Amino acid sequence: MSAPVKGLGLRLRWLLFVESLGLQGSWNPQRMQNLGLLSIMTVWLRRLPRNVERDRLFCRRYYEFFNTNPYLANYLVGALLRLETEREHGAETPRGLAATVRDSLGRSLASLGDQLFWLGLRPALVMGMGLLALDGNVEGVLTLVGCFALGQFLLRWLALERGYALGMDVVEVVAHPLWHRAIAAATRLGMFLTGAVAGVYAVRLLALEGQGSGGLLAAGAALGLGLPLVLRRRLPGEVLVVVALVLALILSFANPMVKG
Amino acid sequence: MDLLASDGDLLRLLAVALLGGWLTLDDTAWSQTWFSQPLPAGLLAGLIGGDPLTGLAIGLPLQLVLVGNLPVGQSFIGDPTVAVVGAVAAAVLSGHNLRSALVTGEFGLPLLGWLILGAALLSLAGHLLVQAERRAHVPLMLQGHRTLRDGDLSRIQRLHRRSLALTFLRGALGALLATLFLARLWIPLLAVLPERVQAASGILAVLLPGLGLGVTIERYGVVRSLPWFALGLAAALATVRWGP
Question: Which of A26, A56, A64, A223 is the best substitution to test chain B (most B C-beta atoms within 10 A)?
Fold first, then answer.
């Protein structure tokens, strides 16, 4: 029977946390985050007495293709470390279990994290920053981003310990309805703030004679809404800027605005 | 104004390079705090030059129009961080201020649109560099196979840190070169272009926020977002109408 497993300990947890911030640092098109994941896992392994054969096999287990959302990855890292700790303490672990957990949980966390962070929180934060920027509020913008930064650091820190405590039961975390409520809330907030930014822009533009026209704001919005429908694909923002330049050139014949 | 007229300018350029390196790491490689998003990145670059509002004026339209770019997996990401740092640093360090875009809402400044266009083109070019760097990570990663044979764990962390150093270098050099290119060539070019193009640059700056908002609404789904969007719009208009 295996010995009971203790927590990670503060120092090891700190070292793992710092290393985990660079999960994507060696992202490559062949195996994506594999080197990053192994780099984190070796922080734990290097604290054990040297055993070449065990280390070789350990690295082999984590050098395959791996990709997940970096903000939620520590749930998985914690769970994998728990699995390895139990193995080190003599527990029987089925062959291939680490790879199965890594792949299936990695995919679930990637999907969850992308919805929450990239599609939910980022647009909301962008619009929040936009409102503050339109007011010229430098400190406000920095504070808002700073709060997000601290929040995601805290999540990563807690996720490491939670993943370790739960071990294979970490799948319960993914299934928790709170995530989907958070995604829905972030999305609604983003939509609300998008409307608020549109309102402030419109008022500012309409207040200025000469550049008069909220019409240009509306033309831009129509372009942004209409292009994906017409082209049936979403263009990168940079390409949209170039497309907007063409529209601006056409409009310049009709609208002799703008001071030099 | 000459960009390298004094030792102070040289120091500021060095600070811009360091900022570019740090923010490029932050973008996807290390920590992802979102200080590397175009708006805060522009603000930080503006702070280095002593003009944060110009940083906001350039960063805001770019941020809005790039909100649809999702840096997920192998999808297109461009390199807006280096581009916006370069654009803001070039404007501020060569003595142009675009504060009036935010202070008086004068969004249609030709130089504003022109710099945003320059930043967008640099970001597109930077995408190729990002891809090249990621391909350069492959041989580094493959070197790690030796550890699968000899169990040398320090090699894994060494290779990983080398990849991070490569990313930092790309950001630092990229920001420096972008600043010099935009300050020495791109900004002066505007003055010699036909008036029609200058006017179009001004219109572009006014079009972009709407474009960004349109892109965001399209991402959310028009029907789904309409009630929340309308609520936000009404709240903003009410605040302006009855606010202080």
Answer: A26
